[in-house]
Input
Amino acid sequence: MSTPANYTRVPLCEPEEIPLDVKRENEFGKLTSQKYLHQVESLHGRPLQKTIIDAPPYYISLLTYLNYLILLILGHAHDFLGVTFQRNKHLDILERDGLAPWYSNFESFYVRRLKMRIDDCFSRPTTGVPGRFIRCIDRISHNLNEYYTYSGSTTMCLNLSSYNYLGFAQSEGQCTDAAIESVDKYGVHSGGSRTQIGTTDLQVLAEKLIAKFVGKEDAMIFSMGYGTNANFFNAFMDSKCLVISDELNHTSIRTGVRLSGAAVRTFKHGDMEGLEKLIREQIVLGQPKTNRPWKKIIICVEGLYSMEGTLCNLPVLVALKKKYKCYLYVDEAHSIGAMGPTGRGVCELFGIDPKEIDVLMGTLTKSFGAAGGYIACDKWIIDRLRLDISTASYAEPSPPPVLAQIVSSLQTIIGDISPGEGTERLQRIAFNSRYLRLGLQRLGFIVYGVADSPVIPMLLYCPSKMPAFSRMMLQRKIAVVVVAYPATPLIESRVRFCMSASLTKEDIDYLLRHVDEVGEKLNLKLGSGKSSVDGKPQRWDIEEVIRRTPEDCKDDKYFII
Amino acid sequence: MSILQVNDTSIPDVLPPSIPIPNFIVTSFSFIWYHLYTNILRIPGGPYIIHYINKSYDDDPYRTWVEIGLVLYAIYYYLSKPRQKKGLQSNRPKLSPQEVDSLIDEWQPELLVENTELSKQSWRLASIPEIVDGGIDTHIDLTRNFGKERFNNVFNMASNNFLQMSKWPEVIELVKKTIKNYGVGACGPAGFYGNQDVHYTLEYDLAEFFGTEGAVLYGQDFCVASSVLPAFTKRGDVIVADDQVSLALQNALQLSRSTVYYFEHNNMESLENLLAELTDLEKKDKPPAIPRKFIVTEGLFENSGDIAPLPELVKLKEKYKFRLFVDENLSIGVLGATGRGLAEHYGMNRATAIDITIGSLATAIGSSGGFCLGDSVMSQHQRIGSNAYCFSASLPAYTVTTGSKILELLNKDTVVVPQLQYLSQLLFNFFTKDLQLQKFIDVTSCINSPILHFQLTEEFRRARFNYSSEELFETISTLQKRNVTDKYIEPYENEEKFLQHIVDTILTKHNILITRNTIILKHETLPIVPSLKVCCNAGMDTQELQSAMEAIKASVLECCTTAN
Output
């Protein structure tokens, strides 16, 4: 408990004294009925249809812009008055003792004047396992989120925010046991860089398992997912190489490419015709100024886009890559483990041999409940990369408990330990994702993405609806993540539900009822029916949705894929 | 009078009284105008538009024509196709579709990764030790050469868990307890429910331990510098860096977008000259706002093992209004009487001396991850502006509780850090005072470094491999200028192989593991030479260390005196 002296600090919470079975149930809800499972089928090489993006009525777009306009005007007025009359409160943006401020007035405007207003929706401190429920530490905001005070109490919330796709965030079960055992055998320290001392038999085992799981000859594991991408491209790309990148690729990929010095061209998200045109043009034009041909061209895409819930169009990409002799890099940060009939990611979902793809990258944070990232390629490539990737020679490798978690969760998915459990988890996340997605669509919300995506972004549009939605959900004990510009286009603020296998069907019913109610209050039911199967606006009654959707959601005919 | 008369009569002869416009045009225009007029009157605000046009035409007829021209141009501009952006690739050749197809057919890309030199460098892969049947402790079992060689109970002088505190029973107990309560992964970035109470607690603990206002945690030590520095710099900012900084900092400098200048390694005169010059330059340029200016250096240098002269640096930074950025990945837990790093080593106050400190939890502290220390405004800005913080999952809970626990232990402990320093000094004195070794090796590390770095002397390098460190750097620079990234330099490769031969000899003959400083030449942009590292840690037995040093000496001498 916190004392008055440090009540502005996040208190360290003691774990609750609860019986073991309750704790288990809180981390991973038991399956309530065999009906609530769904086995994903492979698409057998069929490419994706063109996605139809639903748009809100014009007045909503207009109001959204107006919303921003008011915020901007007020912000600038605030800044002007503040700097003129309250200098001591704005020291962070003023020059002091001949030193420039840490950040300029202009650069930090968005953060200080817009994000600060809704800061209480972000970085909510939590404690315990981020499983089916997450324990949020209660805080009271003061002075427009300038600081918070903590009473020391906590609230259990339904967790739609953590990347816990397969529900391996647990403190009970075989994975936790394996992690704890590894502490006894290996300790917690990773020794030093991989090429000097950090390679252990556990590392090698985990790498072999990953390689086998994703269907590649060899793999390398790194201790941080962001760092995997950020220090990958400079191992084999230079300024005479070209990276063709989807415009929505993650910052880590962009940082990595920038570090390599390679030239970058972007194509519109998911626009395969545009991509082909761009490749043709670039092969003909070659390097800028000199017009010499590019040394190599690599196409970078993500398997599942975490802000959109959309997939890369893998069959088309593979065909293009073969036709034009480019290389293909797929970042499966969100799709590995969570998608495909047996969790092997987008390749399996599309029914494409992983050997067709040159580099498969993924993270171990999301589906496996561990931390870090991996790169999987042919053996001769990995052999070269082991010597050339800077992280392997300069950075810390993954520590033993994390590796043990990776190994045990992978073996669970494959079925080597606790047979049947992995399949259940996969079928549960597939059902849960489809149920929530179809349920939201039927209620009339605008939802982006493909049927099987465990990331379900629901559009809010007005920036002021973000904090409203987030706070109202928190009152209803549901933890959600809201995202806005710059992670999304300016007017497309959204809430992102991250589905998990640990949720039960009843949890999703609870969620749907509350989203329905809040959505009604905030005027969020804006779907025009453009992206629904029958083309009509959907405004189903909540009871009807809960009664019919669990069966319907298993059928592809209700989704546009 | 008569002249006027003549003029009056001559005009009608030349010009008709009015321009003859065909009647149907006049009537159709009047018709259109009439309907347009009535329609405009009908739309709300229409009469005002008509009134405005009338009035402005009355006041200034030319203005109306200009405005009509502008409206027409706006319509034309809106309808015309956007022109191609003028970029670097604007010199587009006009090619027929056949020519395009043949160009595309012709194009042969290089392999994804270069593989011609792989066979020549496969010895590097074979020399990586794989620790088997247990953790990375003071004594380890290992295999090499893809499992073909096996060594048991090897004395480990290669790892950087200097304090060895993370294997203390109370820490292990805490780790298990944390995993039992929190699981392993944090399953989310800090901004989205990923930061747990334990993360905040470690941040408070770090700030308290090092005496700064704030601390921010990162997922991996290598990523911290390249994320923190670019969060505060932009084009036009100035960075002055030591010319032997580690690769992590080189990456940070590259990503910073700023103008980077280098001063000679730990040479304060060189730094001062540079700073003075830059200040003069700024006075001449008179930029509208003061640019952000940083001095970037390392606490304990990763590639040479010596330490930065903090008092002088602080004096200079205050004099020239720079901020000081120090990478303390290796010096945290090592320097200073209680392991508080470079500032404590020089008896200075970290909060005022160093503006940004970055450190590692994965070296002496013995956990995982990295952190950044500084004032609260700077710390707060990282939480929204620093990529590796915003876009990466938080550290696993057990790693942060381990961190907190070790800081708590360091606060109470009076034995471990001095013991480490004692062993470091032993190591340093042995290798620097030995006259036989001096002929062949140069020790570059300082007396307090638990990693002893040594490299071959220039004379020996010249005699054995027929090149010098300057030549190496020149070759690297020329290759860089020519944009060749796959650097394969024969004498360098031979020297590396020779150093590995020393490592192998020590391992096979004496069962002791030391390591080469495994640098990757293609990434390094600053002067560097191959070197060997011998690490000690606080858990080592003095006797065993003594005999290990003797053994290393014997092997080095043996390898250096036998001809190849």
